[in-house]
Amino acid sequence: MGEFSALSTDLTASPQAATELHRYAEALLAHLAASDTAPPAAPDFRDIPGYWLPPAVEALVAILAGDDPLEPLSRAAGRDQQQTALFLCLALAVSGHGSRIHASWLGTAFGELSLDRPVSHGQRSLWLAAARGAYGPAGKIFVLRKLDALAVPEHADPQQWVQALVPEEPAVVIPPSLVDFPEMAEIPELAVPAQAAARLARLRARCVEITSTRQSRNVPVSALGNSVGSPATAWAEDEPLAVLRSLIGLSGPAGPMASLSSYLLDDLRPGADPHLSAIALHVAAPILRGVSEQLESDSRLEPPHALTVPLLGHRIELRPEGADEESLAAAERAIVTEGLAPRSRPWAAMLLIAAGVACLVVALLVHVLFGAAGVTMIGLAAWQLWQRHRIALADARYVAGQVSELKELAEGAVWALHAYAREADARAAQAAEDAAELTRLVRRGPRAA
Questions:
Q1: Angle 136-148/274-299 helices, nearest 10 degrees?
Q2: CA 293, CA 429: separation in Å to the nearest integer?
Q3: Do 291 and 162 contact (CB within 8 A), yes or no?
Q4: How far is 433 from 441, CA to CA, in rounded Å?
Q5: Structural contact between residues 335 and 402, judged by C-beta atoms closer than 8 angstroms
Q6: Which has more pLDDT, 31 or 110?
Q7: What is the largest CA-CA distance in the chain?
Q8: Alpha-carbon torsion 243, 247, 249, 250, what sign?
Q9: Contact by Cβ (8 Å): 424, 193
Q10: How many CB atoms sit inside 10 A of residue 97's CB?
């Protein structure tokens, strides 16, 4: 739009007049943002030929005083029609008198939106003021028509808009039937319907939140300025006032601008201004209708007749009548094979026993001390064999426990699948209700009246 471009007039030709003008304009903006009383009296500053601001300020004061602004307004518009319109629209919005603007000023001040160009700060400030009701129903309708004309949904990625509305979704949704088998909730055949229904419920809740916090038509619109009596310097809630300061040359370069899609996505995120969220929701309505239809369809997907699930690291095929005997037997064989690995013969114990017997024979023929050594070796061999037997018994108990646990898990998983199937009807019915309510909410759009 160029509302922050270099001034078209060389103000150095009359520096004193420019200084007086800027001082008064700053005082006027601070006063408008702080209260709704009469503006301060204008000093007798001279007009600056070619500069739109002096007659624009005169026109603003005349409008606020209830006088005829036509003469200074004509002079200002002749010098820079767009900046004059932007100045008056924002100044009247900040002061709480947005209803006094002329219908044509908004169009002149706003200019043209484009998906290929960033939204200017002037456009965003008018957007914010209109969304908050500064210009009444006509202002909201004006912004909505500007956005509708661009056909944003045709160039949008639906997932981006869903992510903006309901960020930080859980990676896995575990339905009540699968609480004891959370790993089963990650199986695509079971995960897709549950994830779709949960996402649809969150989208509905977010749309209800946006549509239920709209400003009531019975509540008067407050001024858009701050409450401390000094012009704002931040580009956020006080953006209209910050734009005004830039227009009259009281602030430095404007901050970076964003694309139209970026603004709309930011307005949809939790914590955004509810008035902006309502307008963004109107733009996103076609996207959300398509997403809700797809999510409802996904939530009605029936689980397959047979399903292979991981249990204790083994793939078991489950059917309505129970676990598949073949896959269960294969898992049991794998457990036995892993738990009861073949062991070599106890050669060390056998050698100790042979050596011990030899020592006993020598003891009978030579000396009794050889007998003590033989008894010790035979005892050590017996201890090794006993330890080997204990390990074998422990392995057998472990294998039996694993097999028993596998059968119990398989039986429990079958019952969990039956419970999941029973939940499917209730889940599909709730998803249909959520989709219908979401469609109703976005069809209604933000109330412009």
A1: 50
A2: 13
A3: yes
A4: 12
A5: yes
A6: 110
A7: 141
A8: negative
A9: yes
A10: 17
Higher pLDDT, 51 or 12: 51
Report which listed range, 250-259, 326-335, 385-394, 417-426, is most confident.
Answer: 417-426
Q: How many degrees, rounded to 5, is the angle at CA 88 between CA 87 and CA 91?
A: 80
- Cα(263)–Cα(272) distance, rounded to whole angstroms? 11
In the 8-state DSSP scheme, what is residue 44?
A: -
Instruction: Please calculate the CA angle 144-134-136 and round it to the nearest 5 degrees.
Output: 65
Return the SS3 of 154: helix
Q: Which structure tokens are listed for 186?
A: 């990650």
The residue type of 414 is: V
Residue 434: phi and psi, rounded to 5, are: -65, -40
* Domain spans, the chain: 11-300
| Cβ burial 69-94 (10 Å sphere, 16+ → b, else e) | beebbebbbebbebbbbbbbbbbbbb
What does the pLDDT read at residue 3?
45
Residues 223, 97: Cα–Cα separation, whole Å: 8
Of residues 25, 65, 63, the one with CA closest to residue 45: 25
Question: What is the C-alpha to C-alpha distance for residues 253 and 82, in angstroms, rounded to an integer?
Answer: 19
Work out the burial of residue 136: count CB atoms within 10 Å of its CB; fewer than 13 is exposed, 13-18 middle, 19 or more buried: middle
Residue 279 · residue 147 · CB < 8 Å? yes
List the beta bridge partners of residue 310. Answer: 315
C-alpha span between 21 and 54 (Å, rounded): 7
At which residue do the structure tokens 């580009």 appear?
235
Strand partners, 285: none
CA angle 196, 200, 206 (to 5 degrees): 145
Give the global pTM.
0.75
Write the DSSP symbol of residue 140.
H
Contacts of 91 (CB under 8 A, 6+ apart): 28, 29, 32, 60, 244
CB-CB contact of 301 with 192 (8 Å):
yes
Give the sign of the dihedral formed by CA 220, CA 222, CA 223, CA 229: positive
For 146-168, how does the pLDDT look when each residue is reduced to its tens digit (9 = 90+)?
Answer: 999 998 888 889 999 999 999 98
Between strands 307-311 and 314-319, the pairing is antiparallel
Q: What is the pLDDT of residues 224-233, one digit of tens each?
A: 543 433 333 3
